[in-house]
Specification:
Layout lengths: L6 E9 L3 H10 L7 E4 L19 H4 L10 E5 L4 E3 L22 H9 L7 H11 E3 L13 E5 L7 H12 L15 E4 L1 E2 L9 H5 L2 H4 L4 E4 L3 E8 L2 E9 L2 E12 L2 H11 L2 E2 L1 H6 L6 E2 L11 E9 L1 H4 L7 E7 L11 E6 L11 E8 L7 E3 L10 E6 L3 H21 L5 E7 L3 H6 L4 H16 L1 H12 L5 H4 L3 H11 L1 E2 L31 E3 L14 H18 L1
Parallel strand pairs: 1-2, 1-12, 2-9, 3-20, 5-6, 12-23, 13-14
Antiparallel strand pairs: 3-4, 6-8, 7-16, 10-11, 11-12, 15-18, 15-21, 15-22, 16-17, 17-18, 19-20
Length: 563
């Protein structure tokens, strides 16, 4: 299709070529009678020319700033500072640069969606789409797929390093059970993590769905490096999109517009297009098209805190290919919290460089947070980033569980793992300095090599590197002095898992907080659908990539049947 002068006669224009957009483009273009255009703000990176994008260890890609929206920031905790916030800006989106953890969440998560007004999204209804998207290379049976685009495999324990095996022993000592299959019957326990790779190469959504054969379809056009400005709405119907590319503003007309730009950009585009809270949009001089005050509300993520330690040379053993190979699901026991609301995630390697290979990390995160944030426009200028406030730790249950989880991690690293495996335990976070030193450059590789030599040479040098470079000098003992001190510390440094969700949630039309119906159709505007993590009524209690792929599969099937 010729898009040089804009385009007409398009059935579906899909905004956002990340995880969901890749699925939608591939599935909807299966029918040659449909004409599909996929528009992505970032570039199309050829993974065969960029080994970091196909490596089973995602740590190198995740610190390359060229793969992300530049300058994006967010407030993670209520009363805390703003931090840099990562969102993929390239074809395949987060699936191209993430940690590849391929988990589904709890069946109860989806039953909760259905109870919240998302009819047809209960566990029994979504399971077929989880099976459709995957080929599980380790397990079969009614819970697993064997013919889907995404290959899923677990790293066998015989390839794990001593630190990872030590995590497992500690969890067992704490009374937790081992689970053979974390995507099997759901419950508390630990085991080998499933990853979206085949053991050799990453299976991102773009590689798995937008194959050479799919890209060759004459009814599919993929437009990259194109910043969508707004949805064109005429007479109550989405008529197309306006976008900017190569300094020129253009338009694509289409019978149907699908937003799959993620939980940050999809609500921003709705608001820029006049869909949102009427008073808020009026403040920016935006004409209202549909008053849906829930747009941008209900923002959620998985808050995360971590502690790290030096790994003894004898304990490194097999060079770890992944940052994480196993994790523990557990129940906090905090009143009014659902079961399996917490996770411990143990990484044997903290970064791609030589220093990172000498540092292991153990993280705890709330996989079922109760705090809710919001996203608002900073301006009617579509090139300006929105204001992102997760409002984390505003619910006392979240603060309590993060404090308890941090203390549990400290207990494991300081008292349950032998000192000939890990030592020099310290609080850790991805600070601006660490992120700068972790950019994949030749200079940082050289610096990492020097730092690694110093860390292995003597305990004195190692502690100097940790105190002066790796951390800001804060000691673990000082942080753990009392709960008030620990909570204040966590509020300043808490990270998110880069799993934003919920900002265009599904529900019923009479629910003012709902933005789309159970098909992803936007209330009040015909021909406009949202299909990504933003439509989750509540975040799932796990990493969000596989659930996002499932959402796209399910919405694509529905749209295909309707068209």
């Amino acid at each position: 299709m010729d898009l040089a002068q804009g385009a007409r006669g398009i059935d579906f224009v899909i905004v956002g070529g990340g995880s969901a957009g890749s699925v939608l483009a591939a599935r909807l273009s299966e029918d040659p009678r449909r004409r599909i255009v996929l528009v992505e703000a970032g570039p199309d990176r050829d993974p065969e020319l960029r080994p970091d994008l196909i490596d089973t260890y995602g740590g190198r890609a995740f610190v390359d700033p060229t793969y992300f929206w530049p300058g994006l920031r967010a407030r993670h905790a209520a009363g805390g500072p703003e931090h840099a916030f990562k969102q993929g800006m390239l074809l395949g989106g987060g699936s191209t640069i993430n940690g590849q953890i391929a988990l589904r969440g709890a069946p109860a998560d989806y039953d909760h969606w259905a109870a919240a007004g998302a009819k047809g999204w209960n566990w029994e209804s979504v399971l077929p789409f989880f099976r459709k998207l995957e080929t599980d290379l380790d397990f079969g049976g009614p819970l697993h797929g064997d013919a889907g685009p995404i290959k899923i495999k677990r790293a066998p324990p015989e390839t794990w390093d001593a630190a990872t095996l030590a995590y497992m022993r500690a969890w067992s000592q704490l009374g937790h059970r081992r689970l053979d299959d974390l995507n099997g019957p759901f419950g508390d326990g630990y085991g080998a993590l499933p990853f979206s790779n085949d053991g050799q190469l990453r299976h991102s959504a773009s590689r798995a769905y937008l194959t050479n054969a799919v890209r060759a379809r004459p009814n599919l056009s993929i437009v990259t490096n194109a910043r969508v400005l707004r949805v064109a709405i005429e007479n109550g119907r989405a008529a197309g999109i306006e976008f900017r590319r190569d300094g020129e503003t253009r338009r694509i007309d289409a019978d149907h517009v699908i937003l799959s730009a993620g939980a940050i950009r999809s609500p921003q585009l709705l608001m820029l297009s006049g869909i949102g809270d009427q008073a808020e949009l009026a403040r920016h001089g935006i004409d209202i098209r549909a008053h849906r005050p829930g747009v941008g509300r209900n923002l959620q993520d998985h808050p995360i805190v971590s502690i790290s330690a030096y790994v003894d040379p004898k304990a490194r053993g097999v060079k770890p290919s992944r940052g994480v190979s196993t994790y523990l699901r557990y129940s906090s026991g905090v009143p009014d919290c659902e079961p399996s609301d917490m996770v411990l995630s143990g990484g044997a390697r903290s970064m791609w460089h030589d220093v990172g290979e000498r540092i292991c990390s153990l993280r705890t995160y709330l996989c079922l947070p109760y705090s809710r944030g919001m996203l608002t426009l900073a301006s009617a200028d579509p090139t300006m980033d929105p204001i992102i406030d997760f409002n984390g730790m505003s619910d006392p249950r979240d603060s309590r569980r993060l404090v308890d989880g941090f203390r549990l991690v400290a207990r494991i690293l300081c008292g349950m793992i032998r000192p000939d495996i890990v030592s020099d335990v310290f609080p850790s976070r991805l600070s601006p300095l660490i992120e700068k030193l972790s950019k994949p450059t030749s200079f940082n590789a050289l610096l990492g090599g020097v730092g690694a030599i110093a860390m292995d040479a003597s305990a004195t040098l190692r502690r100097f590197v940790i105190r002066k470079i790796v951390t800001d000098g804060t000691s673990l003992d000082d942080i753990l002095r009392d709960d008030a001190t620990l909570e204040a510390y966590i509020r300043q440094i808490v990270g998110t898992s880069w799993h934003p969700s919920g900002t265009c949630r599904m529900g019923t039309e009479d629910d003012p907080g709902a933005v789309v119906d159970a098909n992803g159709a936007v209330f009040g505007v015909r021909g406009l659908t949202v299909a990504d993590a933003s439509i989750m009524p509540r975040i799932v209690r796990t990493n969000t990539n596989l659930p996002t792929l499932m959402i796209a599969e399910k919405v694509a099937a529905r749209l295909a049947n309707m068209s």
